[in-house]
Each structure stands twice: as C-alpha cells, then as structure tokens.
Amino acid sequence: MLPLGKLRNDVLREIIFPNLGVEDARVIYGPREGFDAAVLEYDREHYLVVATDPTLGVPAETFGFFTYHFASSDVAVFGARPRWLVVDILLPPGSEKEFLEKTMQDLNTECRKYGSSIIGGHTGVYPSVNEPTATTTAMGLVKKDELKLPLAMAGDKIVVTNKVALEFAVSASYFRADELRKVLTPGEISKLRAMYRLETVVPDALTAKPFVRGMHDATEGGLTSLHEIADNSGLGFRVYAEKLRLDPMVRKVLDFYGFEPWSVSSTGTLIAIVPPEKSDSLITGLQKNGIEVFEIGEFTADKRRVLIENGEEKEFPRFEGDPYARLYGKE
C-alpha cells in the first residue's frame, strides 16, 4: 500500500517520472525530486513558474488562506511573484453557502495583498467528496537571471525563518486541543491557532530573493528537505542544533508528543541557501520586514549530512514517517 502523505521519491522515480507524456523544449525544469514548481520558457526575458497544490484536512476558517498560499509559496521560492491562479473547489453534500463565501473572500484578500488574479477554475458539490478540497495552480513570471533554484554550492549558509514545526503545532491546537490543555493554557491555544497566517513563505521569499542562491519551503518532512537540496547539488551539510530557535509554544507541543523538530511538517518555514557574504544582509533584510530568521549551518563539499548536538556529531535525520499522520492516529 502507498503510505499516507506525499509520495516518497522512490515511488516518483518508479511510477510518476516515466509517464510524463511528450517532451517539450519549452519546459526548462519539469518534475524533479526536490523541485516544487515547473519552469517554462515564456519570452526572451522571462520564465513562467507554475506550481500546484491541494488544500484539504485544514480547519474551516483557514481554508481560503491555504488555498492561496500552498501553491503560491512554491512559485515564490523560485523567485516569481504569484500572478495568476486557477482554483478548483470541490465540496461535500450539505456544504453551506457561507463557507464558500468566506473561502472566496479570503482568497480575494490574499490575491489583492500580493497582486494575484484568479483566472479560472471549477467549483461544485459532489457526493463522492467527503470534505472541502481545493486544488490551486499558481503561476508567475521571473526574469531569467533572477530565477532561484533549490541548489547549493559548498560554503553556502543555511538560513531559516523562525517557523520550524509551526504547522504541526497549529494543527494540534485545532484538532487535539483537549489533550494540549495539559501543557498549554486556553490563551496559548487561541494564540497558536491564530498563527496559521504565518504558514506561508510568500512574503519571506519575495523579501529574500535579492540575497539568496536558492530557496525551499519546508513542508512535509520539515528540515529533512535539506537532503533533497544536498542530493541535487552533490553536497553534504552541517547543522548546529543549538542554533535552532523554536517558538516556546511550539516547543511545548513537540515535547508533549515526543517529537524532534527536524522532520516535522513546517509549511511556512523558508530554507534559504545563501552565499556566505550575503548572509548578514539577508538576515537584516528579513528582520526589517518583521520576519524572524537565523542561520543554522552550511552546505559542505564533504557529502556527509551532520547534526551537531551537545558537541557530538550524528547523522542528520531523514524523513521516514509523518508525525502529522501519527498525530491523527493514522500511522
């Protein structure tokens, strides 16, 4: 049986990648491990960046926000501002008009905030749909010399925004609030729920663009996506555990469930691949825009992937199971 969540890379290589239709010279970067968007030839000066993502299993009040940001974040990390969206919204029987109205109002708010237009899609109610589900395809243009790819060079710094494991903690605050009251106050749970609006890298990536070599959104698998960057770059990396900063409430949630932060779903955490001479400028630029950020390590010519914790070196964790799924008793 296929595991829950995004397909693992071995399944992509075995089943998905061999069945992609005809080759097209205008496809500069198509489906590839560690690449969450495609890059197409647009004109002499620009590439078209295209990404698609589903929205499901999220709290109702967050549905419209994530319908915009899941796909748009994947466009932004390639250096393109999300400009056009195609949105499919599929609803189960009994859905209320008010839910659809709020979803579209929230989508409209995010589109206006970032200069995006919804140019098409499909909306309907179907008996085979069990919960609200949306699929968004986002597109944007980037100048050819400003395209950002999730690739590194030896010596590049690893800089991340301070939202590691936030996605996991926010979801727990909605779906497991009763048991979290053992470690969080009602006020903390309410505050954590409101932090879903931080689960995007669109503002992070657009601000970071001038300073970085490449970027990635630490979604499912969290910081273990560093392995994909290193694989595609032919490098290793070194991460210093003591440099990782976690929101105190997020730390309480992780400790309660017994999870480490490295492989936990972290949508909204920007992983920035930064030439050493630009690291300080990147951090300053993000902080000026109210985005907390810190450096946790570097990519190395030595292909080992090392986590340094309490002065000891050990292998950096790989993504072997989704704590998100375990949270809901599905694994």
| CATH topology category name of the largest domain | Phosphoribosyl-aminoimidazole Synthetase, Chain A, domain 2
Order of helices and strands: HEEEHEHEEEHHHHEHEHEHEEEH
From the N-terminal CA to the C-terminal CA, the straight-line distance is: 13 Å
Low-confidence stretches: none
Query: What structural class do the secondary elements suggest?
Result: alpha+beta
Q: What CATH architecture of the largest domain do you see? A: Alpha-Beta Complex
The CATH first-level class of the largest domain comes to Alpha Beta
**Count of helical segments?**
11
Q: Helical percent range?
A: 25-40%
The biggest beta sheet is recorded as: 7 strands, mixed
Query: CATH superfamily assignment of the largest domain?
Result: PurM-like C-terminal domain
* Average pLDDT number: 95
- Shape annotation: globular
Strand content: 15-25%
- Widest β-sheet, arrangement of strands: 8-10-7-11-9-12-13
Q: What is the number of domains?
A: 2
- Overall strand count: 13
Rg, rounded, reads 20 Å
